[in-house]
Specification:
about 30% helix; seven-stranded mixed beta sheet; four-stranded antiparallel beta sheet; Rossmann fold; alpha/beta
Length: about 220
């Protein structure tokens, strides 16, 4: 059970307070922090969640804000602690959500830190995102792909077979959001070429090394 002492709550107003540490099969460790009212999920090189402050998804959801009233269900691949649910809730949107995450400890942490009203709209699945999409038969209004190992996007995320699975899982006016960090320019060029081949209607928002990719069957207004 994730619990905070009164001192941790006080100190968290000044600096991030580590609450838990977990050894991951793919990483040296993953840590759970609490900082100024928000839960953070961090690795040695990256942050995967920051509550409703998580910048990549705040940027993405603001860009598709006009479409959000039509989003009734959403698939999240790579969930962190559920920042997507927190940000949408803060914006006033409450779609039904399926969260797919490989690490069961992260799923348990998310269940403990997410508010009950958000958990009621959530189904959490412990699975590899690539394998999950191979077997998926459901369609969604919104798919968010936020899959990383540290700062690296796994190769499968930008391969055509996976992107095609995502495209088939979108309803006709659905939208895919993909968070990408550039580590190698040649790999990025191959990635965006594959994305645009599967999703000709694609917009890219640049923020530092992050690329927030918004794709759909129709042009995003």
């Amino acid at each position: 059970m994730v619990r905070l002492s009164i001192w941790q709550k006080i100190f968290s107003q000044l600096f991030p307070v580590r609450v838990c540490k977990h050894k991951d099969a793919r990483l040296p460790y993953i840590e759970l922090y609490y900082f100024r009212g928000q839960w953070q999920l961090a690795t040695p090189r990256a942050m995967y969640s920051d509550g409703h402050r998580y910048r990549p998804l705040r940027i993405a959801f603001e860009q598709i804000k006009k479409q959000l009233p039509q989003v009734h269900d959403m698939l999240m691949l790579g969930t962190g602690l559920g920042s997507a649910a927190m940000i949408l809730d803060k914006m006033g949107y409450h779609p039904t959500m399926v969260f797919v995450e490989m690490d069961e400890t992260i799923i348990e942490w998310a269940k403990e830190v997410l508010p009950e009203r958000q958990l009621e709209k959530l189904t959490m699945v412990a699975a590899d995102a690539e394998v999950y999409m191979q077997d998926n038969t459901h369609q969604y209004d919104l798919i968010v792909v936020d899959v990383f190992i540290n700062c690296t996007v796994p190769d499968f995320v930008t391969q055509k077979h996976f992107l095609t699975s995502c495209q088939k899982a979108l309803r006709p006016e659905g939208i895919m959001v993909l968070n990408y960090i550039i580590e190698d320019k040649a790999h990025w060029q191959e990635a965006i070429s594959n994305i645009k081949e599967v999703f000709p209607q694609t917009d890219i928002n640049e923020t530092g090394v992050n690329r927030i990719i918004i794709s759909g069957s129709q042009k995003i207004q």
